[in-house]
Amino acid sequence: MTKIDQARLFKVTLSDWNGAVRGRPTRKIAISAKASLYDLAAVTIESFDFDLDHAFGFYDNLTNWARSEEGYESFADAGAGSKFPGVQKAKISKVFHSPKQKMLLLFDYGDEWRMIVQYLGETEVKPGQKLPMITKSKDEAPEQYGDFEEEEYEEDEQM
What we know:
There is one protein chain. By secondary structure, the protein is an alpha+beta fold. Helix content is 19%, strand content 29%. It is built from 4 helices and 7 strands. The protein has helices at residues 37-47, 74-77, 92-95, 148-158, and strands at residues 7-15, 26-32, 56-59, 71-73, 102-107, 113-123, 133-138.
């Protein structure tokens, strides 16, 4: 392997509200060290087959995001009031600085999809491979909206 880009490797696990991850869907993602938290969130959310259609944030408190001391929120980038900075200018190389470091990625503040993002360290990529990329995928993620969308669509067709 030839190192063509300083890449960071992350393990992302869909968790429950208590931060439990055992037996849950997992993705490993390689991404450029120069990428932003927005970029990391986008590839993570898409890797679970979710649409990036809601606000999200990264938080240092894995079980109670509202009590986090460090955080980054998409609200701040949209100009909404936020106690934390935005995700678009926050570089992953500045936020994730030591292997095994974890943060909670909270996606969709209504449904509160919780993903534990763990920094595994630097990784090498082969020439020609584009970043970001999913290097490993374990188990299927649940439906983002469950059967709600399908039922609503069926009702609209009958009218």
